[in-house]
Amino acid sequence: MENSIKILTVAVAIYFLTSNLYGVFLPIYFRENGLSLLEIIEVLLFTFLVIGLLPCLLLRLTRKFEAIITLGIFTTMIFNLVLIFIKNPIVLGFLYGLSIATFWPSFNLLQFRLSKVETRARTISFLSSIIPSITGIIGPAIGGFIIEKFGFIALFASSIILYMVAFLLSINIKFEHETLQFEIPKAKIFRVFFATFVIIGVIESYWLAYPFFVSRVSGTILNMGIVYALSGILIAIATFFVNWLSDIRGTRVEFAIIGAIFYAIWYFAIAYASTILEIVLLSAFSGLASAFMLSWFAHYADSFPREYYASILVLMEVGLMIGRIINLPPTYFLIGENNYATYFILLGIVSLFLVPFYVVAKPLRQQ
Question: What is the CATH architecture of 2-364?
Fold first, then answer.
């Protein structure tokens, strides 16, 4: 197990570094490549459908669900290749969704399996937040520079090479077989978790609205990359300390409540931001929000027996899918009118809907 988590750490570090080279710029690339806002929404719709539904099917078909992470890295490499040649929204959405759907659920399962209860929040935060945050400091700055100097095609070509390295590393991880394949937990707390994931899906703005907003304020691709890099520094620091405290104090639900409140504060404040400095400074609130909310993810793992891990993770993706699709109409209508303030305020209000679910969840925890 110790060797597998080391290999996983290196592989996902390369994966997240590569994803951060171009990920925040994808909406900008779609727009510059001639896609209308409606077509970009179409890309995201198909992306979300694949992310939400494909893992359920894969869990039914395979006994080694963890091993799908290798396919996830490989399909992400193929997606970068396709970006160079294809503009069809349905094809792009399907392949984008395929790349995420074959990486994240199996990656999350490995985090659950390879972590111990007493250090789970730290392990999860290190793998799924601190590493992405640190690579999020380097990646956007480098990616923005490459795009400005050499263009998007050169960036995608570089990404293909890096994904191949991560893929070759990932095949050396020792994967386990599932004792249960797909089974919906009957415990009441699962319904609470599922409802919260729908809400979390609704309040995600990083797919389209936030990158467009940062691009508009920043003015250039390079400046946009620098904004994300500076924000990543604050987010990485906040994530480490918050999740270390979560493990020490065991305050999973309380921390999740704080996270929801910080998200609301961030959205209410970012609605009125108009300069690069304001966006960077306010990113401290989004970093704290994300860090505190990771405790909810750790609590999810703590609340179910290990044999349910694969099932609850693919069901989490279903909940997020529903929320993300609900988010698409306001994204289209409000961002289409450049009404970012109303959009962000709306998401801030929805963030607060999480709090009563978190309060209800604590006494329902399955022992």
Answer: Up-down Bundle (1.20)
